[in-house]
Amino acid sequence: MLLKKKKKEGESNTEPVAPATTDPFEKFRSIDWLREWTRDRQREKHFAKRHKSPVVRKLHKLWGTNSGWICVFMVGLSIGALGGLITLGTRYMSDLKNGVCLDRFWLDQQLCCRWQNDTLFVTDVCDEWKTWPEVLGIGVSKNQSFWDYTVEFLFFCIIAAFLTTWAALLVYMFAPYASGSGIPEVKCILSGAILRGYLGKMTLFVKTISLTLVAASVLSLGKEGPLVHLASCLGNIYADLFPKYGRNEAKKREILSASAAAGVAAAFGAPVGGVLFSLEEASYYFSVKTMARSFLSALIASVVVRLANPFGTYQTPLFFVDYRMSWSFLEMIPFILLGIFGALIGCLFIVANLKWCKVRKTTRLGKHPVIEVLVVTIFMAAVAYHNPYTRKATSALIQELFDRCNYGGQPTDLCNYVNITSDSGEPLLTADNYGHTGGLGPNLKSALWKLALALVCKLIFTVFTFGMKIPAGLFIPSIAMGSIAGRLMGIGMEQLVLTWQGNSPWLKEHCQVGVDCVMPGLYALIGAAAVLVGVTRMTVSLVVIMFELTGSLEFVVPAMVTVLITNWLGAYIYERGIYDAHIHQNGYPFLDGREKFESTTPVKAVMNPRPGGVPLRVVSQDTVTLGDIEQMLKDTHYNGYPVVDNEIDNNLIGFVERTDLKLLLNYYAHNGEIGKGHHSSQSTVRSNSLSATSIESALNDLTVYSAFSNATTTNASNSRGQLGEKTASLHIPNKLMDTTPLSIDGEMPMEKVVDMFIKLGGRHILVTKKGRLLGLITRKDATRYVREVEEQGSDDEHESEEIELIGEPKPNEVNNGGIEYIRL
């Protein structure tokens, strides 16, 4: 049956031919969730038939129930240990840019000073830790000279360039999939896409090493997103050890969802936030059982991280804070302003980063990823070194911005408050015991403009860093930008309150002189949440992660208000978050169920066959031969083929998978059950094809694992000499065919079809008219159509084209997108 489009007046009669080579979806495959779930149920039924012993059945059920728990336990244990090792390695190499511990060169600065027991604080100078000028013998004086500064600058830039260049070389030479954050690709995989090699062992090994190297450099990136990718790699590897999950792609994705939660828990020490992240941001289908397993995996990862103590604080939260105060409803105004700022800077970053990634793809820059990494690193190191807030490690910067000032601890420029007196010597503003409610000291004034410059640098650096061919996460850079903005606003609000305190009796009543009324560290915390949600568009999981990060639950309400304001405004300005935006730009086959899609175009205007496209290959049950099937498998690479009764009626019988056709060919190649010499009638074919008494049980045994059976990997053409007479007719057994495939009427609107793909998880849907096959639409076709409508802004073009069915199906007729019957 052929399809023909009626053209409007004035339209060209020439039908456009889309070049197949430019389709970004052709290189991807997807799983059929319905088929995989059915296959898992068949596996259980098949085992029950083969084993009658109650003891064996109970043991099998016990193992099947607990194997998933064992698998996620192993993932949590491994990613927790791996995350701890990466953090320790990052700390050591990050400190290596500034100096070395002479007696124990394998220790970082914190462990070196603790071993010597000279100081209690990380930023203090101890005798055993030597800067590079001191190592070279030119930095012995207390006052830093020009040569000291130059040597430190050169070592800083050279070591940073060395680390990132080696990381880029490892990724470029051995595992290209190890680059980037990994979260967009993991989202696609969890939605059902198949990205070969993305969760492989080489990717795991290379990304672990390269992530440790780049996280210690000066580049504006984090290791939290890549840890989600590493945890998914571990989940994929461990799932293959358990046949229930290794041989079923749908069940395997349950393990991958739990692995994503463990990755976040290992990165932040936030088990509950990890589970919510997997539910809200990563997973496509998230059952109650998957949630429980995710919680176990995240819990184990957090416990291992706590035991390893890679942060050196002997606490689970990454940025522990202790705010000895509450918040006032008056502070909701600056919190809302921080939410607006987070939405604006988040959208600015997304747009700028997407444009730069497009430039990288469309120019020669993308052909030289290692050189790009080297040049960008040298430039960023040269700029960042001169500002202490861009030179220090990002995690240490965030901790300093979150902390409250306390004279009992290590003094910093951010706590340089002074007393202000009048001309007569009467105190006007007095710094309290915690260093607040005083005037701005000279060091604090200098720190303010340095922080403002650091905010601009962090934004620009992150735009150029995210997307390079190295592992790069966004959580820590986003938190850093937000915490800088929040700290600046907090200091401004603090001084504003002090200025108006004496002139406002009401304010003076609610905020006594000499008491902490405004905590700048709290504003840094709220600002960090605002920018992070502006970039990623997470909501509930982000709030939980932020407060598991800091261990402070008193300020949940202001954080929730800020996150909601940021999310609403950000979605209004730019609809997608950074991960969804990269999925869209990279052309990944991902249907987002959270996005509303409206289209009244009938599915018959979008289905295959399409005018100018490849004809639809259909198996005709009454005329198909072994030679036809063998030739079809050689000529095409489709996942499956519709089966009709005959070429005249064209009534849909079912759908047969490619792997099952290979299974059938291999069976007949080794058993020789086909008659020779002539075409048989349908009844004769059926008796010949099913003459062996064990054929149904054999096929039943193999169809349970047909997609993963070794027999299906055999090329049917290799058995050409064993197939006997290729003109012998063949009847496809019902056990190898889905006799109840998803089918819809050709008039169904595309918005319903897209909804079916999202909620049912099918890989393809057959299009019929009163039982007669019209065509087929795949998940990739639906995704492609959604992208086309989004780019055009509407689907008016599709609605203006009327579709009519012309002629009757003719054998062997192919006419620019018709149905081609499998008959030679």
Automatic annotation (TrEMBL):
Its main location: membrane. Residues 607-674, 737-797 form the CBS domain. Residues 1-23, 790-812 are annotated as: Disordered. Residues 791-805 have a biased composition (Acidic residues). It comes from Plectus sambesii. The lineage of its organism: Eukaryota, Metazoa, Ecdysozoa, Nematoda, Chromadorea. It comes from the Eukaryota. GO terms for molecular function: voltage-gated chloride channel activity. CDD domains: CBS_pair_voltage-gated_CLC_euk_bac, ClC_3_like. This is Chloride channel protein.
